[in-house]
């Protein structure tokens, strides 16, 4: 009886040493708490962007070792099963002693230990993260749900335009079209499509972006003027995009003359186009979204258009060196 009791106590000690998940999940909770607060307040976070890209918060912190969590969880399951078998054997012996009216001074102490150990075996390392309790058996599943929640929160704030009021220059992208003498700022909230297909290139598209939630698409294009004015160039490009003009108007922003057009396609998507003549070519800024989200998108596209500067000297086709920092020459 004493031997089994001592074996249980040794196993219990080893069981309690498998506690890496306690600190790991605390770090996970701290990371989540930091990101959810930023998402709800509309503060931009490259850390959150990375989490959503990787579809995991665990991967953000190298100190959280997935293999170690899994390994210790398997060890604990084995020890737990072993302890339960030893407890069952010990209980049988204790009952046998009682039936035989054998008195042992250690029985009460053993029973107290068993009661406490049973409680410890049924205890978990659960930590509440958002709507879920995370533990060793479900942490990867909860991690996926947490990232999905963060994505929804971030996209909601982007839709509301919250991030516009929390501009961080390092998180913007400056597109410098040297041949056209145009510079435009793409604010936080847009992801560039780095793999333009031949169809896009044939349409004159040189840059393509989509919003975080995928509801808005943004295009930067250039077209040969061929002796036409901005209105005619805009109409030609809109037809290439298989859209139909609804209305348009001339406008001026500082020293920039432009033609603005709104159009739609057969799928009832709305497209806004700003066409700016620049010598032998025209600069085109266009955005597409569905009709239900157009009122949100209109403000975002206008914000980007207002960032356009044409104080860059027009360059020859041979002058196409890369810019510094965030500048991208086209």
Basic shape: rod-shaped
Radius of gyration: 32 Å
Largest sheet: 7 strands, antiparallel
The poorly predicted ranges are 315-329
Mean pLDDT: 84
Strand content: 15-25%
DSSP strand count: 12
Number of helices: 9
* Multimerization state: single chain
Helix fraction by DSSP (H/I, runs of at least 4): 40-55%
Write out the strand line-up for the largest beta sheet, numbering strands in chain order.
5-6-7-11-10-9-8
Q: Span between N and C termini?
A: 82 Å
Q: Give me the strand/helix succession.
A: HHHHHEEHEEEHEEHEEEEHE
Structural class: alpha+beta
In short:
With 330 residues, the protein is an alpha+beta fold. The chain is 45% helix and 23% strand. The strands form three sheets. The chain has a seven-stranded antiparallel sheet with strand order 5-6-7-11-10-9-8, sandwiched between helices. A three-stranded mixed sheet has the order 4-3-12, with no helix packed on it.
